[in-house]
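Structure ticket #2291
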Amino acid sequence: MKPLKNRFIVKFDSEQKEYFQYGTLKLYSPQRGLRNEDAKVAYPTVAEVVEPNGSGFNVGDLAVFPHTILDNKSKYIKKEGSIVYMTIPFDGSEPIFGKIGSKGEIIPMFNNYVCKRMEEAKQSNIIITPDSYKKNNPYKGIVLASPPNSDILEGTTVIWYKHSDYKLHYNVNGEERETIVVKREDIVATCKN
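Resolution: structure written out below.
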């Protein structure tokens, strides 16, 4: 199989539920199949890259998507039992968060950035507030990982549009993880640290 321009081929288990394992990497995505009222909270789905076709992936890489991409049966190439082969465009028409690194981290691709929200303590001239009273600034964070050839580097403080970030919940080998993914076009400013 050879995909057309700006597409790559992945395979995945169509019965992929909350647990999925590739080699020694075991991932858990709680309630992956349920639609969440908060559209920006994503329970990612993982698919193995079979034919990268210049996408930036390598054969065997684990690509991370919102589960809705893999629900599109019109893009199926073939099905062998519960294993499905399908093409996915990498021209920006479908959200692709990135790939999973060897330690279970999300490596961003296609102008996505992995960020961490910044905590801000409540201001007071008299009382120093404990950590339990810190609040997250929902639209400001620090870039933890940048895609290749990025103009915004790791460690940069950024501000993004309201409600434009994706919060990914997943578990790698028993360790609960949460990360924020923000698209480059949704970042409105960088700040001096």
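Closing remark: The chain has one domain: 7-191.
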